[in-house]
Structures are given as C-alpha cells and as structure tokens.
Amino acid sequence: MGASHAATPKGAQAAFFGAPHGTPYKTIDNHIHADAAKAFRKALSWDAEWIDHWDFDFGSRLLPDEGFAAVDLGDLATKPKDGKGNRRKIEAQTKSILDAGAVPIMFGGDDSVPIPFLAGFAGGPPITVVQIDAHIDWREEREGEPMGFSSTMRRASEMSHVWRIVQVGARGIGSARQGEVEAALQWGARLVPGNTFHRDGTASVLQHIEPESTCVICLDLDVLDSSVMPAVAYPSPGGLDFLQITRLIGDIAAKARIGGLAMVEFVPKKDRDGTAAMTAGRIAMHVLHHVARQAVKA
Q: N or C terminus of the chain: which is more exposed, having fewer CB within 10 Å?
C-alpha cells in the first residue's frame, strides 16, 4: 500500500491498522467483517506497485516525493466476543498513533469499532466527526448492548472532544426510529440525507464544516450504492457512487484538516471478483493523498 510495516508509528505522518472485531450483539455475527483489512491491503498493494506513476485523479503523483511516510501497524488481536477488550485495544492504538503525531487510518470490522477509535482522540483538539453512512446509528442500545454498531454516533455525541457531528448519506430504512432522529437533531447533529446530497452535492455538507477544523471521517461502506459496493452486510439502492465520495473527501480536505479515517462494514465473502475491495482501497488512497498533502504543507 506504499506503507512500510512497523511496530510503532514513530517517524510517520500516517499509520494504518486493522480492527477485525468490535462490540458484538448476541444474535448478530461480527465474524463476517474480520478479514476486511486483509482484503483492503491486497487491493492497496496494486496501487502501491505504481506509486511513482502520474495519478490523474489528483493531477500529480499519489504521494509526494519526500516529507511523508506511512506505516502499516498490522491488525489488532481482537476477539469476536470480547467487546470490552477490543475497545480497549482500538482506543489505545488510536491514541498511540496520535501521540506520535500521525494520522490514524483504521480498517474495520463492524461499525462499532469507530466508538473506541473516536474515544482515542480525547485530550487533543476538538473534532468534527463526518459520518458517511447509510444509517445514522443513534440507538441508545440494541439487544441491551449500548456499544454496538447501531449506537456509534450516539456514543460519539457523549464524548466531550466531539464538538460537531455531520452525517451524510442516510437512506431507506435502518435501525433508527423517530425518537433516534429527534435525539440526533436535538443534540445538534447535522443530517444530510442521501437524497439531499444527490440533489445539492458537497455544498450540502461543507456548509456544516468550519474552516481549518479537524475532521475525522467515519466511512461505512454501505453508504455506497449496492451496484458499486455489494460487499456489505446491508446493501441497498440509491446510495452514493465512487466519484461523489472521493469528491466529498477532497472538498473536506480543501476546507479543513483530515484527522483520521475509520472505514468499516466490508464483507469479503460477498466480493466475488475483488472489485469492491479495490473500490474501497482506492477511497482510502484518496484519503491518504490528502493527508500527505496536509503533512507536507505543515
């Protein structure tokens, strides 16, 4: 992926790690996402072979010639049913990357892994969470579990260092009921449903992002249309396409600073020809490009 393997993020400006498992529900299997990071690494390795070539998405090389280094810290030793232990490992890894002055890029795992990922930003500057997702994830609990994937943004809203939440791409029917939508709006979350984004483009999101703020992107791949991203647990029509996602990431980077990325909900067994992983990997490469540019400018 253009990143060297390392045990620590020391000396790097960005660091990747995998979080195969988050906080499980009793009746929902989280094993289906466990090999997502491996699939992404394989897809990213294809681009890495051409890292010195011109990239027409950016009008430049993907990464600068010098002044930027990324490392791959491997996968955390998470366990399917150890929600508490998994959260502790994810938060600690995120914090260690930030303490080293690098931008953390996490590959999940189900959509509960961003909860400890975001918790790892405590003690730093206030962050804007930009959730790009087909669902808003504001359940107080599900099946008695408050730390699962239906509660990600609700838990984020309780973190003192999260001062704004912008949620992009919600569509169709998800776990949210009227009460969860009302709770999100009452807290102050900026909701930009998928149909609004389709109509108004990135301006519908950028109006909620302050210049020079630190944005942490939580990307649930089910926000992509099922024709583009079938390899998710809950695919549905009407989602965003690749160019919309990458244009949004680029416009966020032009206005603010990307402080981290959590990319989740990929199901490798549903990716029969590898193209879905390639799409996800290319999105991660776009994030890496913008992180590299901001690091070189700093």
A: C
Q: What is the pLDDT of residues 95-116, one digit of tens each?
A: 999 999 999 999 999 999 999 9
222 and 232 Cβ atoms separated by less than 8 Å: yes
pTM of the model: 0.96
pLDDT tens digits, residue range 254-292? 999 999 999 999 999 999 999 999 999 999 999 999 999
C-alpha pair distances (Å), 16 with each of 24, 41, 115, 272, 288: 23, 10, 17, 25, 10
Residue 42 is part of a domain; what is its CATH number?
A: 3.40.800.10
Number of domains in the chain: 1
